[in-house]
Design brief:
By secondary structure, the chain is an alpha/beta fold. The chain is 44% helix and 17% strand.
């Protein structure tokens, strides 16, 4: 309850700022005050549906309300996407607007306000339109992952990485089935699901995630928790993924052996567990306790965090997600100020890190910079 109230207050402040900003730019139009106020009150009310839906899912199952309620929640998330774009563009516009006050006449200042308002609305419309176009689409990203320690017998070994599916209000069974179809076509040696499977209670999403049960690979399919599993009941989600045929790696490892060497896949819980009383804490030491020091080790860890410690522990490669590469503009830029590793292949003190931008999306159904991704990783022996 505290979290949703905090979100509500923050969103209210954003809307008040936007209402004042718009009203000032339309100060010369007498009827604009009431229209602007009415619009932002209704806009704010629509935004409130999503966070309160998230909170209410815990004690209440809203499925009986039917398609109308789902549509309302989806519309609320779109409204939140519009709000964030509108806020960022408005702040930029207001800075320019105030700059004109310092250097130009009052008449120019008033006229520039209307021009900037039109530009802000246009930029928001363009961003939201582009984001809606690519949200829910899927592409396959194929990369080679060179590892000096890789045994010759594992050269060409393929891993299909699925991350940040976020099954929930927008992404349903049909989306999951598309993922399954794509991965099946790729015929990987192994499948890795690196967290944030869903946004919702498992019992409400059982049918939507069911197609994952059809996935198979010669060396198995493995799962590690993301931060969102801890918001919706991590133990229940661990039980759910097991029924789908995934092996959950919770501070565990699995060893593959071929001819001249060993390949070990290690999994740890997401760092969000550190804020959850009673949750199993991530421990690389426990996960690698019985692992041969001669083996090539690949870590599945939802967030690209604590990389110095991971590199020192002798991990050769890490597969992560979490960032969504910022998901939609302007956050595709802002994310780079927060996360040093946002998307793609990195070398971190000898540790090869691949960060997926995720196949789904969280919150607003917006993606810019291309669709979500399924990653086909081919291990290569580097000389």
């Amino acid at each position: 309850m505290k979290a949703v109230l905090t979100v509500s207050v923050v969103l209210a402040l954003f809307n008040v700022y936007l209402a004042v900003s718009v009203r000032q730019k339309l100060a010369g139009i007498s009827w604009s005050g009431g229209v602007v106020a009415a619009f932002f009150i209704a806009f704010f009310a629509l935004q409130m549906v999503a966070p309160w839906w998230d909170w209410a899912q815990t004690p209440i199952d809203h499925r009986w309300i039917g398609d109308f309620y789902v549509t309302l929640v989806q519309s609320s998330y779109i409204a939140l996407g519009v709000l964030t774009c509108l806020f960022v563009y408005s702040v930029c516009g207001d800075i320019l607007w105030l700059a004109t006050k310092l250097f130009f006449s009052a008449q120019v200042f008033r006229g520039m306000g209307v021009v900037l308002l039109i530009l802000v609305v246009g930029a928001t419309t363009a961003s939201v339109g582009a984001g809606l176009r690519d949200a829910g689409k899927i592409e396959v990203a194929k990369i080679d992952l060179p590892l000096k320690s890789l045994p010759f017998s594992f050269d060409g070994f393929t891993i299909a990485q699925i991350s940040d599916v976020h099954v929930g209000p927008h992404l349903k069974r049909a989306f999951v089935q598309n993922i399954v179809d794509e991965v099946t076509t790729l015929a990987p040696d192994m499948i890795a699901l690196t967290g944030d499977l869903a946004d919702g209670k498992p019992e409400n999403l059982t049918n939507d995630v069911a197609p994952f049960a059809a996935l198979s690979a010669p060396f198995g399919k493995y799962y590690v928790t993301g931060n969102h599993e801890y918001y919706w009941g991590v133990d229940a989600w661990l039980d759910q993924v097991k029924t789908l045929g995934f092996r959950a790696l919770i501070n565990e490892s699995v060893t593959f052996e071929r001819q001249d060497g060993l390949l070990v896949v290690v999994g740890i819980p997401d760092v969000a567990a550190q804020r959850m009383p009673g949750a199993i804490q991530p421990s690389l030491a426990v996960a690698t306790k019985n692992v041969s020091p001669l083996a090539t080790k690949i870590l599945l860890s939802h967030q690209p965090k604590n990389l110095d410690d991971i590199s020192k522990a002798g991990i050769d490669a890490q597969l992560s997600g979490h960032t969504h590469a910022g998901q939609y503009f302007p956050f595709t830029w802002i994310i780079k100020l927060i996360e040093p590793y946002t998307h793609g292949l990195y070398d971190v003190q000898g540790l090869k890190l691949y960060v997926s931008k995720g196949v789904g999306f969280w919150g607003p159904p917006l993606r810019t910079g291309g669709p979500g991704e399924i990653t086909l990783i081919t291990l290569r022996r580097a000389e």
